[in-house]
């Protein structure tokens, strides 16, 4: 088995294409072709869930549903649920940034048109497939579709602002409202079906061509999600479904006041009563979508930063012991060895490393963190062990070029000396350092492969505006670029085996 591999981090929303946002359609297939030509092994993406607050893929309305805005509309023409004329919209979309407001309104209108045609037309094969999808996913899909329908009924307000009979899930009231919301409930089931069909077609194409998908699981779910609405007993809520505390990070490299995520925190004592079945089911579902899974904020399983609900920042939080080995033992006993990458960045204590190593999970190394504290820095390549994944940067980092431009003169000198660079092409010189390291896996964000600057940053932790918007321009994934990437991939023994 090949141990040294490489890949590219690019979320599908960042792909080029029509209608203002990247999709899992033709451009995604073309990106797989680029990875194949470049002899890569992995395509890493961010969470695929339906985005809510701040358009963040880490704040989704469900831990299991797919993002409807990733659905490719032209593929709906191929199966005659839309006509080409339907796609002649008059909105002006940007090729550089995702304008979520325009994208969402335009896409939902066209998806509803596709649903209406599906309902009224002769689509027996599709309808049989749809019915099968519903039966196989009903355990989560029914609640999710009702949740989304109620959000529309209540002007898209979060569930904790609904009237009490809905907020607290009065069963009689919910059953009585379902006929009124029937078409909207069906719509959300329909778009989940379409997303699933398109995603698995893309995944199969990638896998058939030797490309594995690295997905991403946020450790927490969004406060405004079907997960919290349906199963409040699994979270640290009071009797009225109000959170007692929320998640985040203490002050660190990214923020002097820490990160206040606002996500509710699991009640691990309650979860342990049924041997962590919620987590087992979540991992099992996720491994159908992806080949490997990066678990975001892995350190939270060893110990998590609990912030009093209502605080304005994360400074007054406290460390609380997490479920640790009990959770991962339960998952392993239920599912066997699972292909997990542990996102072990931030303030890492010995208990985090002990948990990671007890289950032989590869951790993460980020080169942008390597050059500010001398030779003892664990992120410097000469300090790596093989069982890790090295990144030039992540979705939370500046691009390499933007990071280098803002570095101190002494740090710049250190970087250039360490990577033997003249400074003309720092992003590629850092990619070479990652690819040349002993780490079993090396990943670079597509922005670094393209040598882009600060304006191509994907996310700034602690902020809620102008994130998740970057898009790759049409035509940049040239054969010349693929050959350049293939060259260093072969040079450092990471070339994908045919």
Description:
- The longest helix is centred in the N-terminal third of the chain and has 30 residues, at 124-153.
- With 498 residues, the chain is α/β, with parallel strands linked by helices.
- The mean pLDDT is 95.
- The chain is built from 18 helices and twelve strands.
- An eight-stranded parallel sheet has the order 9-6-3-2-1-12-11-10. Strands 5-4-7-8 form a four-stranded antiparallel sheet.
- The radius of gyration is 23 Å and the shape is globular.
Secondary structure layout:
Blueprint: E1 5-9, H1 26-37, E2 42-44, H2 73-78, H3 100-120, H4 124-153, H5 164-167, H6 171-177, H7 182-208, E3 212-217, H8 226-230, E4 245-249, E5 259-264, H9 268-272, H10 277-289, E6 292-295, H11 299-302, E7 303-308, E8 318-321, H12 325-335, E9 340-342, H13 350-358, E10 363-366, E11 388-391, H14 400-406, H15 409-418, H16 426-436, E12 441-445, H17 446-449, H18 479-491
Parallel strand pairs: 1-2, 1-12, 2-3, 3-6, 6-9, 10-11, 11-12
Antiparallel strand pairs: 4-5, 4-7, 7-8
Helix pairs in contact: 4-7, 10-12
Structural class: alpha/beta
Q: Please give the order of strands in the largest beta sheet.
A: 9-6-3-2-1-12-11-10
Number of strands: 12
User: Total number of helical segments?
Assistant: 18
pLDDT below 50 for ≥5 consecutive residues: which ranges? none
Strand content: 5-15%
CA-to-CA gap between the ends? 12 Å
Helix and strand string, N-terminal first? EHEHHHHHHEHEEHHEHEEHEHEEHHHEHH
Shape: globular
Sheet having the most strands: 8 strands, parallel
Please identify the oligomeric state.
single chain
Q: Over all CA atoms, what is the radius of gyration?
A: 23 Å
Helix content: 25-40%
Round the mean pLDDT to the nearest integer and report it.
Answer: 95
């Amino acid at each position: 088995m090949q141990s040294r591999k490489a890949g590219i981090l690019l979320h599908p929303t960042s792909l080029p294409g029509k209608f203002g946002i990247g999709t899992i359609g033709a451009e995604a297939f073309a990106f797989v072709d680029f990875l194949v030509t470049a002899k890569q092994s992995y395509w890493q993406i961010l969470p695929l869930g339906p985005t809510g607050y701040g358009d963040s893929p880490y704040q989704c309305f469900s831990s299991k549903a797919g993002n409807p805005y990733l659905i490719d509309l032209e593929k709906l023409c191929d199966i005659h649920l839309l006509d080409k004329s339907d796609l002649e919209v008059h909105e002006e979309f940007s090729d550089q940034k995702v304008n979520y407001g325009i994208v969402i309104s335009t896409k939902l209108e066209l998806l509803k048109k596709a649903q209406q045609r599906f309902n009224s037309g002769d689509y027996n094969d599709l309808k049989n497939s749809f019915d099968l999808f519903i039966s196989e996913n009903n355990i989560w899909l029914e609640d999710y579709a009702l949740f989304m329908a109620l959000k529309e009924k209540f002007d898209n307000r979060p569930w904790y602002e609904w009237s009490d009979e809905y907020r607290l899930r009065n069963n009689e009231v919910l059953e009585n409202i379902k006929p009124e919301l029937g078409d909207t409930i069906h719509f959300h089931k329909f778009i989940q079906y379409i997303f699933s069909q398109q995603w698995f077609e893309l995944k199969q194409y990638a896998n058939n061509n030797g490309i594995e998908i690295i997905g991403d699981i946020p450790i927490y779910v969004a406060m405004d999600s079907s997960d919290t609405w349906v199963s409040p007993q699994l979270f640290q809520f009071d009797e009225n479904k109000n959170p007692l505390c929320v998640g985040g990070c203490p002050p660190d490299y990214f923020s002097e006041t820490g990160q206040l995520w606002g996500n509710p925190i699991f009640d691990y004592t309650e979860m342990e009563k049924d041997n962590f079945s919620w987590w087992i089911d979540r991992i099992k579902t996720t491994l159908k979508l992806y080949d490997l899974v990066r678990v975001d904020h892995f350190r939270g399983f060893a110990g998590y930063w609990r912030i009093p609900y209502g605080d304005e920042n994360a400074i007054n939080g406290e460390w609380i012991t997490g479920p640790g080995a009990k959770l991962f033992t339960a998952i392993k006993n239920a599912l066997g060895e699972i292909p997990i990458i542990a996102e072990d960045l931030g303030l890492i204590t010995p208990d985090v490393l002990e948990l990671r190593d007890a289950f032989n999970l590869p951790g993460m190394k980020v080169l942008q963190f390597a050059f500010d504290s001398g030779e003892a820095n664990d992120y410097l390549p000469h300090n790596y062990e093989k069982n890790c994944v090295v990144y030039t940067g992540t979705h939370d980092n500046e691009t390499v070029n933007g990071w280098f431009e803002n570095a101190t003169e002494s740090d710049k000198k250190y970087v250039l000396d360490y990577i033997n660079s003249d400074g003309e092409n720092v992003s590629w010189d850092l990619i070479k350092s990652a690819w040349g390291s002993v780490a079993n896996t090396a990943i670079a964000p597509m922005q670094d492969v393209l040598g882009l600057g600060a304006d191509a940053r994907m996310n700034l932790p602690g902020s809620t505006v102008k994130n998740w918007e970057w898009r790759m321009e049409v035509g940049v994934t040239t054969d010349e670029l693929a050959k350049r990437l293939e060259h260093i991939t072969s040079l450092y023994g990471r070339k994908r085996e045919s």
